[in-house]
Amino acid sequence: xxxxxxxxxxxxxxxxxxxxxxxxxxxxxxxxxxxxxxxxxxxxxxxxxxxxxxxxxxxxxxxxxxxxxxxxxxxxxxxxxxxxxxxxxxxxxxxxxxxxxxxxxxxxxxxxxxxxxxxxxxxxxxxxxxxxxxxxxxxxxxxxxxxxxxxxxxxxxxxxxxxxxxxxxxxxxxxxxxxxxxxxxxxxxxxxxxxxxxxxxxxxxxxx
Amino acid sequence: xxxxxxxxxxxxxxxxxxxxxxxxxxxxxxxxxxxxxxxxxxxxxxxxxxxxxxxxxxxxxxxxxxxxxxxxxxxxxxxxxxxxxxxxxxxxxxxxxxxxxxxxxxxxxxxxxxxxxxxxxxxxxxxxxxxxxxxxxxxxxxxxxxxxxxxxxxxxxxxxxxxxxxxxxxxxxxxxxxxxxxxxxxxxxxxxxxxxxxxxxxxxxxxx
Lengths: 208, 208
Ligand SMILES: [Mn+2]
Ligand SMILES: [Mn+2]
Known about the structure:
- The structure is a homodimer.
- The first copy, chain A, is α/β, with parallel strands linked by helices.
- Chain A has two domains: 1-26, no CATH class; 31-207, Glucose Oxidase, domain 1.
- The first copy, chain A, is built from five helices and twelve strands.
- Chain A has helices spanning 13-16, 64-69, 77-87, 127-136, 158-165, and strands at residues 6-11, 20-26, 32-34, 55-62, 74-75, 94-99, 124-125, 139-144, 169-172, 185-190, 199-201, 203-207.
- The first copy, chain A, has an eight-stranded mixed β-sheet.
- The longest helix of chain A is centred in the middle third of the chain and has 11 residues, at 77-87.
- Chain A is globular.
- The model of chain A has no long low-confidence stretch (mean pLDDT 97).
- Chains A and B meet through strand 1, strand 2, strand 11 and strand 12 of A and strand 1, strand 2, strand 11 and strand 12 of B.
- Strand 2 of chain A pairs antiparallel with strand 2 (20-26) of chain B.
- Bound molecules: manganese (II) ion (MN) (2 copies).
- One manganese (II) ion (MN) is lined by residues 28, 32, 34, 172, 199 of chain B.
- One manganese (II) ion (MN) binds next to strand 3 of chain A.
- Chains A, B: This is Cyclase family protein.
């Protein structure tokens, strides 16, 4: 159903005196934001996410150690509690990022990790962890350095549905999470303001 | 050569349990950034603009009064000097925005202003003003609330070429410039990091 990004020349400096390209694109390509209407009827579309929910504190929970040993690794409630014991409570109205190390696999088959049954294998948030963040903490959204906030083996997208039912956003395929502070930075999610969109590629910037 | 934005459903909640859309798009649609390679051979593409050049001070020079009387109005060197006498010198490494009031015409033919000879009519920076900014001030880029940094009547895109030869960027079709301070704000240009792109739609945010 999806397809790769394509850049198709429309005009070139040599022939037209101006260069410009067409893009063949869909809403869930590359580093992108998921809006709540991606899985939930009548929920917010990308343009309806409030700007104040897109510039928020960010924390990074690193599960790359266990993920390097298990491609189905999950970010669990225990991982959140261990993080908090070291870095303090997750700030209100923040974005919680999972760093799994998966960005290193971007260009190899392990990024999707399809097995012989066409089941995907990559790390994600456990649904209990998402439930915990939604009910015991105050978050604006969550993010991951791989393809999806749910682990690849969850073909029901449980976490997506819980998160979006609560009106929160997700960011996926986020790069450079190992280069920002674990806590204390602010993230700016440059989600394009496109009506009806269920998502869209986004320039995501951390400042600290 | 150009075409309007189209959002084409790929999947719907009712039929597929997930909603997602395809976008038919080109690099110079809606609120977008122009990269120097749009008009100049071997200049920077969109992904090559340094992040530190995309988060910069912003000033807004309001020429809406004269533009309301003359759709070919230009932002001139005198307008810059008048602005500076009131708000102080344009800060180094900043983005200079022209506010012409044209955003109000977004949905009527006046936005492009084609005459019977197919010549366009809308306000823009004079090429002398761009030259002044490039040589007498230090800028990161410039922007406008209408279609192009050059006035519609300039079919040679003189200002584009001068600006891009100097490796600076432009932002076009920028909304809400009348709602931010004339000076003192910081702009975050969320230009998508797409290789070879000559531009691309961008979430542009001012904070102050
Ligand atoms: Mn997605
Ligand atoms: Mn353009």
